[in-house]
Amino acid sequence: MKKSAMLLLTVVVTVTFVFGASHPVKAETDYLSMSWEQVVEEAKKEGSLTFFAWWGEEYWKTAGKQFEEKYGIKTTILIADADATLNKVLAEKDKDVGTIDAMLIGGAGIKTAIEAGIFYGPIQGIIPGADKLDPKLSTIQEGVEVKGFVVPIYRNQTGLLYNPDRVNNPPQTWDELVAWIEANPKQFSFCDPSKGGSGQAFVQTAIGYLAGGLDKYRGDTELDPEKVKNWVDAWAWFNRMEEEGLVTITGSNNESLTRLNEGEISLAVAWDDDTFIAFKKGMMMKQAKLYIPEMGLPGGGDTAGVLKNAKNKAAALLFLAYLIEPDMQLQMNNTIGSYLARTDVTGKEAILSEEERQKYGEAWIPAPYKQHFIQEFVKQVLMK
Amino acid sequence: MDTIHIPDYRLVQKRRKAFRTFFAILLIFFLIIWVGVPVVMAVLWSLVNPDYPWSYPQAFPSHLSFAQWKYVFDFTEIIRAILTSYSIAPVATILTFFLAVPTSYALGRRQFPGKEAMKILILLPIIMPGMVVALFLSRVFDAVGLSQNYFGLVLGHSLMGLPYMLRILTASFEAIPQDIIDAAENLGASQFEKYRRVIVPMILPGLFAGTIFTFITSLEEFNLTFVIGTPTFETIPTILFAFLGYHFIRTNAAVVSLILMIPNITLLFIAERFLKTEYLSAAFGKM
């Protein structure tokens, strides 16, 4: 018995060692210093590609097929949960060759992704047309400096979504919003900032108005404890709202939309792309309207990058270049309503206008502050 | 003179019947709330016509259509996922059965040091968060070349189903009274006869329950499949979780849920016909 157990253990250890050590070490091809024509040639030689996104299958699958027809590169589009995919990519990080070549990355995962160094690059300088993309999102995604490792694919923006049957004069300024909340208990909703970006957008805005503006945080790469001392004023305001039962805090971006559609609330902080999809799928009352209040709300967008251990890096680079071509950006805009990352082309399908975005769209404060307010909100408001 | 009180048995019986009826109605009521309402809601959401949103104050959607179903079939790999899921689950269940029977027999009928600790250890895969188990196991699977292949997925699903099969089968083996086995031996039953006529019939309901649980666990397994199987393999939960994730699309999630749920509910009804309550309670209550 002992002998066979030892034998089994030896086999397992040997197999593990053999397989673990058997990955051939390939000489790394440097696509970053190649000409774009060479990258395209290399991409065709690679002949296949796997791209991950977590939503909008209607667009990605069609774009994948079109790319395949144009370049003869077999394109596999994987639509899957974003958190699970990031976990998978992190688990595969130390492998010589991973299973995903390129991926869409959102605000929730960008900090982890950049810090873990999962992306190949910097790629912004070599992808044709990358200079036509929104410069703000090309530099910073939800408070995180992306250092050229990802390219913007689409922009998104938070706004106030309301039911016009119940909200006659939608609030525009912070004071108007507070007055509206106080006059309509439980009718205003935002999500727990640890569960969704729309909640983060509202908490950031509240900090801006209750703790002396947002400009003082811009440009900081680390958290300055002095600058967050007066956030207690913001937490006191949120606590009062909670104690007096004036606001509804939901568990996700989409729960706010669901509750508005079901008539439980009348005004909610929401993302424009979530709202567009809700309209398109029959999950949102037709009369609902979204706007960016004059007080401003943050917006950003989602980006995509090539993974450092991608098997088909050239094909992945070519696919990203394809996704930011003007025609593809317009096709994306028409299909899933996402707002174009290119600034030189204007799309049709948009709940919010370019003018509104430029005028009232705010930038996110740097990531260390954003992360801090998410943690503090949970501690100072939700757990009290 | 004291009067002797004779209970009116008809009245007692009547009260008992009323009591039973009351609890039966209560049970049905809660079952409708817990099981019926979510299923009906899923069906309704899956049939919402995108041009006519289901919104307040409508109690039911004003127009129904199969547009959401068509979308799922047009833009996801659902058919391939169904085929993959149903080609892994039966094989994983059979493998689990072969791995579980000897272990359960040892745990249920034999005494050895560390038995109780082992019973807890085998539950670890279901106690730990799924993604944690998946991430650790993926390293092992990678190392031995079992990532991105069918056998790796079958083995992974077997590992995830094993705790259920082991727990139920161990309880079934434990529940066999030694007297019956002794009686069979005294009456001259051979070792083979003893297994065929005594042990196997007595563990059959447990075996059936274990099989159903393992099969369903395999069909619903997401984390490990995702980490070691995608992008080569996509199963039904991979598609479901995409709709349930950051961009929660309730209508399409309802469609995929129903695709996943309907065969599972059918299987549970079949299991219900074969199982006896006391075996199920033994399976969950003992150990």
Task: List its traits.
heterodimer; A: 384 residues; alpha/beta; eleven-stranded mixed beta sheet; two-stranded antiparallel ribbon; 15 helices; B: 287 residues; mainly alpha; 13 helices; disordered C terminus
What does this structure look like?
- The complex is a heterodimer of chains A (384) and B (287).
- Chain A is of the alpha/beta class and 384 residues long.
- Chain A has 15 helices and 13 strands.
- Chain B has 287 residues and is mainly α.
- Chain B has 13 helices and no strands.
- In chain B, helix 3 runs antiparallel to helix 9, helix 7 packs across helix 9 and helix 11 packs across helix 12.
- The C terminus of chain B is likely disordered.
- The chains are: A alpha/beta (384), B mainly alpha (287).
- Chains A and B meet through helix 1, helix 3, strand 2, helix 4 and helix 10 of A and helix 2, helix 6, helix 10, helix 11 and helix 12 of B.
